[in-house]
Every structure is written in C-alpha cells, then in structure tokens.
Write a structure and sequence with these properties.
84% of the residues lie in helices and 0% in strands. By secondary structure, it is mainly alpha-helical. It is globular and about 65 Å long.
C-alpha cells in the first residue's frame, strides 16, 4: 500500500487548495483581530461583550455546519464522478437547510438580544453593551451563511480563489467602515460597538456580491444552475439525510456542549471573560491554517473516492493528516514566540494579560492533537463515513469533557486556567482511536457507482497482501 507514492504531487495538490483557503481564513481572522483591536480601545467590557455575541454566532455555526459537511461530501464525490446534476441538487439542498438556520438565529439575535446575552453572562454591564451590538449584527447572519454555502460549493469543485478574493474585499470594507463608524471619522457619528456591527453587516453583503460577480465573470455555472437546485427525488433526499444526519447531530450536540463551556467561562471574573474574547480571535489564526488542510483533505480524498480511485484516497488521507499536524506545530511555535506583543496589541494588561498567556499556551499544546482529530474526521466525512468520528466526539464531550469542566469549576472551584484545560482532556484518547480507524480503511463509503466498484477492488487487493 506504500510503494511509489508521489509525495511531490500530493503536496502540490494540497497547496493548490489549502493555501488559498488558509489565506481566506487568515484574512477573516485578521479582520476579527482588527475589530478586536479597535473595539478594545473602548475598554475591556466592550471586548468581552462582543466576544460573547461571537459565541452566539458560533452556536449558529454549529447548527448549520452539519449541512456544510454533508453537502461537501456529496459535492466532492459527484465532482469526482463528473455528475454535474448531482452537484447542483446537492448544493441546493445544502443551501436551503443552511439558510433556514441563519434566518432563525438572525430573528433571535435581532428581536431577543437581551435573552441571548443573559444565557452567556450574568454581568449586567456586559449584557447592556452586547445588546447594542447583537441587535444589529444579527442582520449579517444570512449573508454570512450564504457566503459559506457558496464557498463550500466552490472549494468542493476546486475553485478556491474566488472565496479568497471575496474575503479580501470583505475585510477591506469591514476595516474601513470600522474606522469610520466606531470612532466617527470622515464626519460620521461616533457609534462605538454599534458602528462595528453595521460594518460587519455591510462587509458580509459585500462578500456575497463579490462571489457572485466573480462567478459570473469566470462563467462558473453551478452557482446559477437554479433549475437543478431543487431537482430532488425521494431516493436522493433519503441518501442525503442519511449521510447528513450524523454530521448534523454531531455539530449540533457539540455546539450545545461548547455553549455550556462558554457559559461556564462567561461566568468567570471580567478579566477572564475579556481574555477569552481575545483568545478566540487568536485561536482563529490556528484554525485558519487548519481549515485549509481540512478542505484539501475533503476535496482530494472525496474526489478520489467518488471516481473509484480508492487506493489513492487511502494513501492521501493518511499523509495529509500528518502533514497538517506538522504545519500546525510550526504555527504554534510562532504563536508562542509572538504571544506577548499580540496580547498587548489587543490592550490586555495585568490579570487579563496573564490569563491570555495561559490560554494560548494550554491551547497551543492541545491543538496539535486536536487538529489531527478534526482533519481525520473531515476526511472520513468526505469519504462517506459520517458516523465514527461523530459518535466518538459526542460521547467524549458529554461523558468526559463537560463533567470534568463542571466538577473542576463548581465542585473544586479550581483556578480559571485549570477549568479551561478541561476542555481538551479528551483529545489524546480520541486521537488513538481515530488513528486505528484511519488505518482500517473502514471509513471509505462511496455514494457513487464508480466509487463502490473502486472500493470493491481496493478491498480485494488488501486481502491478497
């Protein structure tokens, strides 16, 4: 299984997908960092409030990301099999489900911001600022989710540059409008966090418009193949929901679990809440690199599975996982080296600075294993196995992580950083189990006829060795 593998070709294919995706996510994170830096000049309470609003949007992310994972599974495999109608109807189904989620969360944020903020913190001063921000930024949710859906389609069909260009336009717009509206430059009123929210709404709309314009100019047909978006039959709906349901359950239950974690962290002292808000932005830098490799793994493995090149899918998957972890290790080393200036740039000082430093070092050690788990899970999903990683992640979240977190916080009243470290207690155990599953090749479960035939040949070849 290991003879004559072309590493150079694999790295070239990974780079073509991973670099633009990583740059896109890095741009988004940079935009978030600029937001944090600008808002931090208004005080730590403003940073904490906007950070907690971000946790609500993360819950929305958890609710729709299952459809992204399921849709990407179908799109990448249909792309490998050159089934273009299958691509369009998979995208139509994915987008319909995603937009439904975004509208629900937008309505909750815009109409009931006080109720939402009360879930995350009991600090009235933070709630008041958060209400101002959330009631406006909620209108950005449908645009943000629409751009994610379009980007998923583009990435799964190996058109990764368009989302990158759109992100550049969005970040530039957001940064400029932040400067104008937060501080009242160019004759605009001083709006503070409300200005930041308005900038987010406008930049999210720019992102969507830019993707559509680029797709038109490049004659990319799948975004406009509306007649096939809803060409669903019972068999397709059954298969789509069968593959998506475990992913949806995973993202939703993990999102709820992370919501519990954020509630626990949101009831710490104000300095800890501010440190967590800044940390979440920095965390995005690491995740930005990870998403590039995850997207590459999903597309390259899913495409091979769909076209019947099962041996290539197996070989690619194993190597991409390790390459991802090595790269994340290098990113973490850089993060450790620059964490001090980075935290000071975001106006953390005193106890907040100490908390921020602790958060970065705990996360930096844990995330090398965590990204390996995530990459393997995304690889399994793209190959058709949406169950194994899902069951494992949910089981450990509710049987180990949450009990350890709550006991540390509520029973032993452990220091804040010890409580935070409990969030990653399951990662090494899951990694061992995920590695065993990876080498078993049981995660290869095609949805195309070509893929099923290729799997049969692959299994026969393994038995003969």
């Amino acid at each position: 299984m290991k003879n004559h593998f072309d590493y150079r070709q694999l790295l070239k294919q990974v780079a073509v997908i991973a670099i633009p995706v990583a740059l896109q996510n890095l741009l988004s994170t940079t935009g978030s960092m600029i937001d944090t830096v600008m808002i931090s000049s208004l005080g730590e309470l403003n940073v904490a409030a906007v950070g907690l609003c971000g946790q609500f949007s993360f819950l929305m992310f958890a609710c729709y990301w299952g459809f992204v994972g399921g849709g990407g599974l179908f799109i990448s495999q249909y792309w490998g099999a050159k089934d273009y109608k299958g691509i369009s109807r998979s995208y139509g189904m994915t987008l319909t489900c995603m937009m439904t989620v975004s509208v629900i969360f937008a309505a909750l944020g815009a109409i009931f911001p006080k109720l939402v903020l009360a879930m995350y913190t009991d600090k009235v001063s933070i709630q008041a600022i958060g209400i101002e921000y959330l009631s406006i930024v909620a209108f950005a949710y449908p645009f943000q989710v629409l751009s994610v859906g379009m980007s998923t389609l583009l990435r799964s069909t190996e058109r990764v540059k368009i989302p990158l260009y759109a992100s550049i336009a969005s970040v530039v717009t957001n940064t400029f409008l932040n400067w104008v509206l937060i501080f009242g430059n160019l004759g605009a009123p001083v709006l503070g966090v409300r200005g930041a929210a308005i900038a987010t709404v406008v930049s999210s709309l720019v992102n969507v418009i830019f993707i559509l314009i680029c797709a038109l100019f490049t004659k990319y047909k799948f975004l406009f193949d509306i007649k096939n978006f809803f060409a669903w039959d019972k068999e397709f709906l059954r298969l789509f929901m069968k593959k998506c349901f475990p992913i949806i359950c995973n993202e939703l239950l993990i999102g709820i679990g992370n919501g519990v974690i954020n509630i626990v962290l949101g009831h710490q002292v104000e300095e800890a809440i501010a440190a967590v808000a800044v940390f979440r932005t920095i965390e995005g830098l690491v995740i930005g690199f990870f998403v590039g490799f995850s997207s590459a793994a999903s597309v390259l493995v899913g495409k091979c599975v769909g076209s019947g090149e099962t041996k290539a899918a197996y070989q690619r998957a194993i190597r991409i996982v390790y390459f991802c972890q090595i790269t994340i290790l290098l990113v973490v080393v850089v993060l450790f080296a620059i964490h001090g200036p980075l935290l000071r740039l975001m106006n953390l000082s005193g106890l907040s600075f100490d908390f921020g430093t602790g958060l970065i070092f705990i996360y930096g050690i844990a995330c090398i294993i965590r990204m390996g788990n995530w990459t393997q899970n995304d690889t399994y999903r793209s190959a058709g196995d949406a169950t194994f990683g899902t069951v494992l992640e949910i089981a450990f979240m509710y049987a180990l992580v949450l009990p350890a977190l709550i006991i540390a916080n509520n029973v032993f009243h452990a220091p804040f950083l010890v409580v935070f470290a409990m969030c990653y207690i399951d990662e090494p155990i899951r990694y061992i189990l995920m590695q065993h599953h990876m080498y078993s090749a049981k995660w290869i479960k095609p949805v195309t006829p070509e893929g099923k035939l290729g799997l049969q040949k692959f299994l026969e070849e393994r038995k003969s060795k």
